[in-house]
Design a protein that fits this description.
The chain has about 170 residues and is α/β, with parallel strands linked by helices. The chain folds into two domains: about 120 residues, Hypothetical Protein Ychn, Chain: A (3-Layer(aba) Sandwich), CATH 3.40.1260; about 40 residues, no CATH class. The protein has six helices and four strands. The chain has a four-stranded parallel β-sheet with strand order 3-2-1-4, sandwiched between helices. It is globular, with a radius of gyration of 20 Å. The chain starts with a strand and ends in a 48-residue tail after the last helix. The model has no long low-confidence stretch (mean pLDDT about 90).
Length: about 170
């Protein structure tokens, strides 16, 4: 089983992690750990929250306060601004250094849902034989299957402008 890290940053108590831990427990995931990268506005109560989360579910929960981030990654610290989502980079590096084979990043408004959250995340890095979709241009618009009442075309961000079809409505 691959070692999986769930990483987030927060300026509040990340209560949604309880739902993630509960989901992982329900689906019997073992090789998982959490990393929470704090920021200047993160309340000190987060330390107790992380300790309680670890105690309740048995998953390792690592809280990286500002001082810890700067101690672990002193060269990077001057490049990552305070009060920014980019504080999460410290959490990702910490997960990597702690041998996470899969690193999942979430925001505090991402919810776990009812299904096995890690089921499809856990296949990252696996080799699979799959059917391949192709086009005569070498570009396939994955939004092509979307239907809109006025027959407008949709394109995913990054799809080349010169490959986009246009229609009149």
């Amino acid at each position: 089983m691959k070692k999986i890290a769930l990483v987030t940053t927060t300026i509040s108590i990340p209560k949604l992690l309880v739902e993630y831990a509960s989901n992982f427990e329900n689906f019997k995931w073992k090789n998982v750990f959490f990393v929470v990268a704090g920021d200047l506005k993160t309340p000190v109560e987060i330390i107790e929250f992380c300790e309680n989360l670890q105690e309740k579910f048995g998953y390792e929960v690592n809280y990286l306060d500002i001082k810890t981030q700067e101690k672990l990654f002193p060269k990077l610290a001057s490049y990552i601004p305070y009060n920014s989502l980019t504080r999460r980079n410290f959490g990702m590096l910490f997960a990597y250094q702690n041998n996470a084979e899969i690193i999942i990043t979430i925001d505090d408004d991402n919810f776990v849902g009812n299904g096995d959250y890690l089921k499809f995340h856990s296949i990252v890095g696996d080799k699979k034989r799959l059917k391949c979709i192709s086009s005569n241009t070498g570009w396939y618009n994955v939004c092509e299957v979307l239907k809109e009442e006025k027959n407008r075309y949709f394109f995913h961000r990054g799809f080349p402008l010169d490959q986009r079809k246009t229609i009149e409505v």
